[in-house]
Amino acid sequence: MSKGNGGSTNSGTSGGGSNSSDGGYTYTGSGTNSQGNHYCSRDYGNGSNAYHYSNSDGSYYYNNPNGSTYYNSGSGYAQYTSPSGQVHKSSGN
Questions:
Q1: Counted domains in the chain
Q2: According to the UniProt entry, which residue ranges have a biased composition of type Low complexity (predicted)?
Q3: Per the domain annotation, does 36 fall within a domain?
Q4: 3-class SS of residue 8
Q5: Non-local CB neighbours of 78 within 8 Å, separated by 6+ positions
């Protein structure tokens, strides 16, 4: 499971913290890398942060403020990891 189809290579070409607030969080950064993968990060103000990647191959990855993660390949495979570390996988048709 890759975070943003390249992990730490997802340096944004835009963003850096617009500080726009909506729904109890503040956007802290967003951008698109040279591969066309988009990321967005948020600060929930209570020590919890979250981010997501939307990749050019149709996959996406969420790291949620409660510590859970969700990955969807965009082609039928999905994996959810709960805050306690329990992993749930599915492969659709």
A1: 1
A2: 19-37, 51-66
A3: yes
A4: helix
A5: 70, 71, 72, 89, 90, 91, 92
For residue 75, the SS3 value is coil
**Considering the domain boundaries, does residue 2 fall inside one?**
no
d(CA 20, CA 16): 12
C-alpha count within 13 angstroms, C-beta hemisphere, residue 35: 17
Range of the domain at 22: 7-91
Q: Does 1 reside within a domain?
A: no
pLDDT at residue 89 is higher than 90: yes
Least confident stretch, 7-11, 22-26, 59-63, 88-92: 7-11
Which pLDDT tens digit goes with each residue over 23-77? 688 999 999 988 899 999 999 988 899 999 999 999 999 999 999 999 999 999 9
Q: What is the pTM of this model?
A: 0.71
How many whole angstroms separate alpha carbon 43 and alpha carbon 3?
18
